[in-house]
User: Which sequence fits this backbone?
């Protein structure tokens, strides 16, 4: 009996402790939620503040850089600001919303979510997320370190994606960070024309700098309506590394802020593109079983319902190993690589996983890194190599391999006649 009584009292104590812990946790979460709710701080007749149009805007602390705010109602009604922050120094930020027509200024405490893939650099991509005021659809927001101050002194950013749109395109390619006085003109044009053959209608390029000749080519594609250029002067604000990891080059941020650009590109195209393709200008996702991306993606979506992220394996076609087929004399004067002459790929390395690039449904992605999505609503699928692979023509990774150890893969040649004709048209209007 005594043993039973003791057991009962232990059980009652455990129930009490669990109940008390739950109540404390719930109270804490409620307080946390309340601390992030918008509060009116000013009432005025109209909203002022300087509207900012630059791509990268530093705040006064010079530790926070705002790229662009986006409306996101997939979970609750929030403004999600894509930015770059110093992971250790930026602890507190506030969104200042101006509600029209009553002119009330609301302030919300931001949740600062620094992306996990920072690769050791002090600065990284961040989502600065604020709950929006009820009964108000703010069109602009200001970001500040304090809930107090004068909104007239703060930069004002337009909140994009406020209005729902119908998709204007099926595929948008995001090319992050064109830098290093980029001059691989021939390969760039070939990639662009391959994208178009495969079904791309839009290519968004975050441009840091490129050669004068490349500028001419970009101008042609902009006028054609294919390319959208987002200026990316990140080195005006931070010491940038051209390496992906801090241990290789100890600067402020890695690879010209590539991850931030990719995340911005996803949100920028969330409402206007059915799919967003995240790859570099020297990479082409080549379908092996389908003629184009639209047919391939329809097939993949049928096979994998509810999937929002499709990962494709990267394969190196070294530019040091070439074939004499498609040696087109007029192309020899154009700087850059002729991809049609590089059809030997490196074999897989033992115990080395090939990196992947992605075709995603942007509405299912919350945060992305370069080779995988960090947070999403849908599942991820690795697309088998017999369905598609990434043709990546660049300097070799296995430079010591003899030619006979490489795998001859002429998949690209399927498109040769259309590709040559289209590339010639662009060259004659731009370079030649």
Assistant:
């Amino acid at each position: 009996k005594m043993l039973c009584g003791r057991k009962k009292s232990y059980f009652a104590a455990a129930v009490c402790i669990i109940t008390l812990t739950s109540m404390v946790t719930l109270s804490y979460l409620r307080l946390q939620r309340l601390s992030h709710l918008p509060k009116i701080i000013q009432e005025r007749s109209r909203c002022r503040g300087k509207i900012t149009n630059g791509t990268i805007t530093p705040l006064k602390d010079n530790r926070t850089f705002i790229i662009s705010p986006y409306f996101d109602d997939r979970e609750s009604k929030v403004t999600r600001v894509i930015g770059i922050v110093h992971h250790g120094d930026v602890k507190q930020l506030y969104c200042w919303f101006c509600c029209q027509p009553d002119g009330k200024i609301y302030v919300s405490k931001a949740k600062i979510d620094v992306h996990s893939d920072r690769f050791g650099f002090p600065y990284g991509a961040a989502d600065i997320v604020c709950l929006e005021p009820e009964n108000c659809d703010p069109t602009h927001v200001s970001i500040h370190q304090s809930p107090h101050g004068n909104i007239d002194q703060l930069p004002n950013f337009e909140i994009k994606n406020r209005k729902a749109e119908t998709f204007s395109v099926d595929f948008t390619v995001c090319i992050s960070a064109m830098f290093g006085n980029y001059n691989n003109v021939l390969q760039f044009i070939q990639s662009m024309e391959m994208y178009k053959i495969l079904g791309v209608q839009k290519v968004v390029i975050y441009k840091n700098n490129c050669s004068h000749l490349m500028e001419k080519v970009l101008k042609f594609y902009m006028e054609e309506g294919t390319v959208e250029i987002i200026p990316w002067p990140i080195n005006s604000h931070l010491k940038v590394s051209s390496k992906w990891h801090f241990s290789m080059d100890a600067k402020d941020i890695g690879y010209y802020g590539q991850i931030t650009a990719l995340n911005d590109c996803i949100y920028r195209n969330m409402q206007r593109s059915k799919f967003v393709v995240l790859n570099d200008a020297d990479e082409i996702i080549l379908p092996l079983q389908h003629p184009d991306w639209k047919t391939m993606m329809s097939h993949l979506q049928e096979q994998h319902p509810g999937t929002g992220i499709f990962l494709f394996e990267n394969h190196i076609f070294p530019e040091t190993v070439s074939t004499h087929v498609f040696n087109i004399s007029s192309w020899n004067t154009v700087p850059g690589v002729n991809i049609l002459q590089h059809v030997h790929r490196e074999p897989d390395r033992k115990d080395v996983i090939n990196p992947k690039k992605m075709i995603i449904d942007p509405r299912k992605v919350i945060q992305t890194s370069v080779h995988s999505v960090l947070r999403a609503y849908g599942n991820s699928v690795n697309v088998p190599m017999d369905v598609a692979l990434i043709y990546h023509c660049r300097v070799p990774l296995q430079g010591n391999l003899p030619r006979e150890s490489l795998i001859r893969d002429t998949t690209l040649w399927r498109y040769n006649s259309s590709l040559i004709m289209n590339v010639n048209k662009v060259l004659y209007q731009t370079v030649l």
User: Anything to note?
Assistant: The chain has two domains: 42-158, 169-429. Residues 2-36 form the longest helix (35 residues). Residues 42-158 form a domain with the Immunoglobulin-like fold (CATH 2.60.40).
